[in-house]
Every structure is written in C-alpha cells, then in structure tokens.
Amino acid sequence: MRNHTPELCKEIEEALELSADALLILEKRKISYLNSACLNLLERSEKDDLIGRDVADVLPPTVWEPLMTILDPERGGHGTAAVGVSFPRRNGEQLSATALLVPFGPPTPSTLQITFLHEEMAQSHSPSLGFDDIQTIEAISEIALKRADPANAASDASRELSRLFGATCTLIYLLGQDGVSLDLQHTPCLGNIQEQLKREVWIEFPLERIRLPSSPFLEEALAHGAAKTFNDGASMNEVLCSGLMSIAEDKYLIPSEAEDFASQIEKSLGIQSCIIVPLTARKQSLGLILVFRAAPFTRGDQDRLERIAPHLALAMRRVKAQCAEIEYAAELSTLNQIGHDIKAETDPAKIACLAAEGISDRFPDCYVGVLLRNPNRPEELILHAGAGSAGEHIPLGRRITSGEGFAGWAYQRGKAYCCDDITRGPRPSGQGPIPKATRSVLCVPIQIGHEVLGVLDLRSHEFAAFDEHARILMETIANQVGIAIRNSDLCRDLRLELQERCRVGGALRMSEEKFRSLFMDSPTAQLEVDLSPVKRILDRYQEMELGDFKSYFLSNPKEAQRCLMAMRVRNVNHSTLALFVAPSKKELVRKFQALLGDGAMDFLVDSLVAIANNETSHSGKCTLLNFSGEHLHIMVQWVALPDTTPPYKHVMVSLVDLTRIKRSENEVRALMHFNETVINSMTEGVIVENQDAAITFINPAGAEMLGYSFEELAQQPFDIILPAEQHELIEQVRARLREGCAHRYRLKVKRKDDSLLDILVAANPRMDGDQFLGCLSVFSDITKLRKTETQYRWESSINAALADVSRRLLDPSFSLQDLILLVQHHGLTLTESEYAFVISSRGNIHHSDGSASSAGIIIEPLSAAPPENDWDELVNDPSLLDRVIHANDSFYINNLNEAAIAGSNGITLRNFLAVPMKPKGAPFDLVAFANSGRGYVKRDLRAIKRLVRLYAIALQHNRAKQIHLASEARYQGLVETSNDLIWRCNRKGELTYLNRAWEHTHGYKLDEMLGRTFANFQSPLAAQRDVEAFNKLRSGEPLTGYETTHIAKNGEKIHILLNALPLLDSEGNVIGMQGTAQDFTERKRIYEALIESEERFRSVAQTAADAIIIADEKGKIHFWNEAAVEMFGYSSQEILGNSIFSIIPQQHRQDFNIGLY
User: Fold this and answer.
1) 0.90 exceeded by the pTM?
2) Which residues pair with 1058 in a beta bridge?
3) What range does the domain containing 418 cover?
C-alpha cells in the first residue's frame, strides 16, 4: 500500500479490518500488517506487539511448516497457491483453515500476502439442518468456492439449486457497486431462452444488461431480508418479465413489440411459481435468489432455501473477498512494477512508455495511451506512449487540445472521465480516430496538486470494463507518473542549476580577475588596507569605558598615531603610485604612515571614531605628502567590505586629488571675471530674466540701446519695454523656453523715450534639471543690418547682371538694346513708366561762340520711348541740353520741370540719368534713362555705368574680331605667331605639324617634337586617361575641352586644354587628327585661387554671428548661413530655392521692396 494515495490506503485498511477473513502481509519474513480477524485467529490482543516480528515466532508450526513447503523452491514450492493449515486453540481443539498465498514485488518476490479462510457457523434461529441439507450446503459452498469470481460462482450455484428444487431456472442477482442496482450473474439455464429470443425477436439478449425494476416485494426482501413465495403466474411474470423487458426497451422496440416480446418470454419459460430469498451474510445484504418452476412451491421449499441462502451468501462473500484480494494483489504488483520502472527515469517520454507498458500488462485487452502536456503550448496534449490489444500499432505524436475528446475533457477539468458505454450517447467533439470499436472509456488526469501534467487514456471494446477499483488503480498510477514527471523536471532543473552554478563560478572567478585588473588599472588612486588591528585597539579602549573618543585622540595625538601605525597596507594600484610619485609599491607600503602628516590628523581622528562606532564607511578631506615633499589636497573615502572576519580586515580606500580641482576653481573664477568683462564690453545687449520674467541683469550696451540705466531696469518686469502688440509673441517664446528650447526671433521694443527699436533676440533657457529658472537673451539693433542686407541684395543684382553681360560679350549680335533688357531684367532700374534711349550726334553740334545746338542730336529709342527722334521735340529744358552735350561723365537729374521731357502720349518724365559710352571712333554717345517714378540715386548711376562700360569694351572687342575675321584669309602667317597651340598628327598619333607656340610652352624645338606622340610629353598620372581619349578620337568622335597635363623640357607641369577633330578621307575613314590647344596654366591657378577665396567667404559667412542671406534678382535664395538657421528656424534644405519674401511678414513686404530697389 506504499504506492497508493493516503485516501485509498485508508479505505483499503477499513475494508480489511471489517473483513471476516484473516489477512497477514509479510515483507522478508517480517510481519508488516495483519487485520483484526487474523488477530482473533491467533488469539492475540495487541497488534503492535506482532508488527515487525519474524513470522516463524508468531505462527504455530502447524501453520508455518505447510507454508514453507509452498514457498521454498528447494522444497518443491511453486509460489502462489492455496494450502490447508490448522490452528491450535486454547481449548485444545484444532481450527482448520485454508491459506491463500500471493507473493509480489519486483524484481524478486519480497512481499507475501496470506489470507486464512475458515468456517465459523453461527447457530441460526431456523430449524436444525438435516443431513441432506448439510450435504447440499457443503456441495453448493464447495462449488462456489472453486470459482475465482462471483459471476462464475453464482452460475455454478444457480445450476445446482435448479437441480435441487427441480426448477426451470434459478437467477442470482448480486448488488452492484452502488449498493442499489441488482446485476444478473451468469445463468446457464437461460441460454436456450437467449437463443430462442434471438430467433423469434431478432435481437441479441445481453444477460449482463438485465436490471430488475423496483417493486415493493423486492425492496422488502432487500431491506428486511424476508423471503417471499409466489405461486401465481401474474406475480411471477411481474418479477421476471419486467426485468427482461428492460432489454427489449433498450433495443428500441415499440410498445406493441415489447408486449409481444414479454408474451413470448412467458410462453417460452412456462413457469407458474417463484421463490425470492435474500442473500445475507453476517447481516450484510448481498443480493437475491429467484427460483422459478412450473409446480407450486411449498413452505418447506422456502424454509429449505432460506437455510441454504446464508451459507451460499457466505460462500459468495468469501469468493468476492478472494477476488478483491487477488485484484488488490495484482494492482499492488502493477503499482510496484510501474513505480520501480519509472522511478529511475528522468525522461518524460520514457516514463510515459514504461507507464503504458505497465498498464497494458494489467489491462491486456485494452487500448492504453499516455498523453503529456506540451511544454511549449500548455493547452495542447501530445501522445507520448500507447499500447493496443493484440499487438496493435499505435501511432505516436498525435496532438489534441484542451477540451477535445475524452482525454481533453479530463485535462481541461482535472477530473477523471469514465463511461461504461459510449455507443449509447454522442461522443465529445474532435475525438479523433479510435484504435478499435470502443465501448468503455476511462481517462484519468495526471496531476500534482492543482497542476495537470497529462492524461492516462484507457479504452475497451467491452461494456462496463472499468469499475471503481480500475479508476482508483489508474489514479494511483497517474499519481506515480505525475511524481516521476515532476521528479524529472526537478532533475532537469537541478542539472540546469548545476550548470548555472558552474557558469556562475567561472563568472565569479572572471569577476575577481576583472576586479583585480580594474583595481590595478583604475584611474582613481585606491588602496586595500587592513584595519582589524586598529579595531582591536579601539575595542580595548571601549572595554576601558572610554567615553569621548574624539576628545581623547585630539588631546593625545600619540595614541592616534599608535592606532595609525597598526594599520597595514595590503595593496595599492598604479594610480596611487603615480599620485605619491612613489619609486615602487614596496616603498609606498613601507612609508605610507609617514606620508600622513599633521594635515591628516582631523580625518584620522574622525575615522577612528567611525570605526569605534562600527561604521562601515567614512569620507573627508585632508592634506598628505608625496615622495617629492609636495602637499596634496586629497578627498579620502574608505569602505569596509561586508562579511569579513575579523571586521575591517578588507577596507578599500579611494584617494581623489583635489589639487587640480582647486587650481581649476581659481581658473573658473578668472574665467568668470573674463566673461563678465566680455559681456560688459559687448556691442550686443545681454539681458537676464528670472522665472517670473523679471530683469535681473542687463549689460551696458543693452541699457544704452533701450535708453535706461541698469538701476532703472533691475528687478523690473520685462514687459516694461514691450509694446502692447508684442505681448502675444513674447508669451509664445516663453512657452518654448519653459520647455527647454532655445529660440531666435525679431522683436520691437519700446525705448525710454517711447521710440520703437527693431532688435534680433537669441534667447536661451536657464534650466536646473527639469526646472525652469529663467532665460538669458542676447539682442542686437538690426536697423543697420537691414540697410546692409538691402545693399547686399543690390550688389548681388549688379553682380548677376555683370555676369550675364560677361557671358554674352563675345556674341557679335549682342546689342545695346539687349543690354537695356538685361538691366531691366535684373531690376536695376524701375520698369514702371520708364524709357531708355541712346543720344548721339550726326555731326558738329558746337557753335563757334562755344554754345551748343540741338540740331545734330538724334535719339534712338531702346524701349517704349516716345516716338520723337529730335531733341527739341522731346526735351524742353535748355540746361539739360547743355549737360548732355558737354557730358564727360555720368550724371542724373531728378525733379525736372514738368515740361522738361514730355512725350506725345502725355506722360511727363521728370527724372533723367545719362551714362556716356565712348567707343573708339565715336564723337559721343549717351545711354539715357528717364522715368516719372522714383528718382535716381548714386547706386543706379554706378550700376548702369559699369554695365555700359562693359558693353563699350564688348563693342570694341566685336569690332576688332570682325576686322580679324575679315583679314584672316590674307594673313595665314598669323597661325604661326598665334598664342594658341595648333597641331596635326597621323592615325598612329605621331605629330606631323606644330606651330611656333609649342616651342614657347614646352621648351622643345619643333624638330624635337615632330614625329613623336603626345605620350612622350604627357604626365604619368594622366597617361591612362589620355590613351582612352585618343582612342575615342581615333574612332571618329570629336574631342572638345579636354584637359590634360604635359611636362615641359624644364620639368614644369603645363595644363593643356585640347580641342580636336578627326581627319577623314573621301571614304570617311580616319586618317589622322588635328586641333588646337591652349595653355591655361595661369588661368587654372587664378581659378583655384578664386575657388579658395569663395570657400573662404562661405566659411566666414557660415560662422558669422549675424544672419547672411543671398538672393538673386528674382528674390530666390541661394545662400543661407547657420546664423540665419538659428534666427528664422528654417534649415538650408528647407529654404534654399524659395523666395526671400517667404520670410518677410506681409505688412513689411512693401517697405522691403522700397528698400530693395
């Protein structure tokens, strides 16, 4: 019973104690258990006196000797058997009994169960038994006792009773396990009836399914043990036919067919009388005996059956007890076998296989499955082991989910599921394939506490194959399997823990090595000291009841020094050696106490007091000496490592050199003074606000901009300098500052004299963690900056116009009218009501008296000018005529008389600007502009003057070029004197013609270069690229603007710009190449210098504190420095290419236009 659950063991012990049969269990000849019946049989009173004793000392020889004959193999024993024995009684009589021996316990029988069966017939109140009755009782009892199960015993007894009473049939019903239902046992006399019913009614007659219905006389017979005789057919039919009718109803017959079935049963049996006698043994009801025959029963028949019934009940009771004991022994053997097999396994799959094998041995004709929980999916079960009847193959690995089928139901609810006949009702959904036609199912969960680990699945093709004992057995096996699985989990966890401990041990060793390495290589000076001797000295002082340690040591410094000398330095790191400038570790350890001078006395006393008070750490400042005699300001902190014996044996001391920190503090103070000087000398204003927006500081430049003194603004709210319309903007800025974000913005502030000042502010929050303390703002007057921006934009427009003109100078078709269009395109003059024209002369316009006349002046319109061509028709102002005729330089006149310049369209032109253009050979020409809008200013004059000068140069260049082209055919010799390099080569690249310019650039004579290739003069770095270019040229592709590098005769590098065309024959084949080249070495140097200058400008502009923005004439932004990013919040990627007006507020755009133009 060791492998049973406590509840099951208790039930088994109670049943064994109530048993009338004597039970004795031995383990290796030692008595381990005996029940009360066995104690009475041995005539003993104390059970505890017999437990543990050798069986030979307790049983008499008349009992033990026959048993040894059975058990000892050397004496012919064969193990399990039954043997007759006799017990000597105190009265001198011998009590005969039968000993039933069942050995069990793998691997060799070590436990023996002995059951003693004996006859003790109590005197009944019924009449004395006759000799025939005694023989009959002995015969029936002997027949019943020969059987090993109640069903066969009842079958044999019913056959003998039918013979004894001349009955048609005898039915023996035994109470079911529920103690209420009556189950018909094997009845051979009904075999013919079963066959007849099968032929006539076409149904099977399952006798094991017969259940007697409830009736008053049956209940009376069971409850009161009273016998009853019926000699009328109606009562008899009510007893028999009603029970048999239940079979017909189970076969789903309609009522009329059921009545016919009952009539056929009555007709087939042909009986008229019946005796019902209860089976009672020792006041315990076991069931009923029903005897049927055609002749009536007499009172003597009933009395005779009543005398036989108790003995038959006793025999049936003994058979049931023997069957239960054998069943118990088999179950115990199965449990021991399974427990022995699985207790040494740590693999759940092998545990499942061993459990399935053990259960299959106990239930050989059943399907056995062991399903375990999937560790990765707890809601899923996996079939790890299975066994079928007759060697049937069971596929493993099948998966079911919680609640699916019988096993899923048991797993989900944690309860056993038992069904006697699953054909009578629907199966659970998702049951899956069943190995054989299944009728009975028993599923028991494998669980430990409330945790379900799996399910034992047991199925049979027989009806009601699993009783309560099977369920208890399976639950016990499930407990053993659960414990084994849990033990396997524990073993696995133990292995993992051992592995983890090994890993942790290795990590600890590595950590110790790393600690030593970190200790030695730490940038902080550290020492490891032993203060346990100091602690012992202080403990002795405490035993002397010394009160104030600090006062004592300060008044007795020698005692403090004595404690200091007891300290032992165990180890120092490299940083400590460097801090003390120690020659070696040994020298520092030896002289460390001597380096603690008077400057360390206070810290030493405080440390002694801390040690006396059992404190584990202390820190403070002191002054030490190094080996060079220098004083070191040191921050010292020591920490005693915990769990050390004795205390303070391992103390880590950290030394931080504060000498540099003090030096740094002095430097910080000097830097603060310098910053204060810088702030006070800044041209920008600096203002500091607290969290309440009150001014706490303003530098002199800021106060001067606002017209206040520092005293007038100190502790005043910032709103004192704000106009009313700026409050909303300031609130938005303050909200961003409180979030910790810096901000740049433009602001109009109110000066002391109530005038407005336009400033640019860069505000930065002052934060302490997440707490806003105020802000620091730097502001500058941007009035001059705006003027500078306007001037810069104007200069940019001029530069763009100049660049545009420069690109078109060499175009012979470029006219003065094109120049005017470029001027207007770049916005250098007003386009509204503006006119451009050229004033020139036909001949002499000067009189002999020195006066001038307008007769020779002509006007050539260049834009939408008035149609008049004569001066007198257009200009009515004589003074303007004189200025034009005698003009040697540019000039402009604004606000002329309203009638000075008037066109036929009625527009009055009051502003006039003229720029002389004097190309070679022209008396005079003036480019003039007139408008009725804004007056001209000096910058207009400068811009137009520069453009007209470029045009004049271009005009001269074009005229010279035309002359050159006209005379090119007549002067072929100019090729030889040309500065351009002219060349020709054959297909192989050998030079066949060079002009004289090659001698000047390369330093070689022409004879030295002709017949050679460019490869003889090219730079090695450009060789590969030159070969590729030459191959393209040889394939027929022209070469334009190809840059390469040659090496002159004197070794200098020459940068060459080549243009070449292939020479083709009449068939289009390339026969050579020719082209020109230019020496642009000097231009390349100038270009690289220009690029460097431009990069320098960009670098300066990017790092400038002021925002610098460059836009073209259309307002498209081309440059945006970092200060502009901080000022406006746009990144360069976001703003480049956009209009300048995107950052100008709508209300200021008109003013911006006026300032721009």
Assistant:
1) no
2) 1042, 1077
3) 344-495
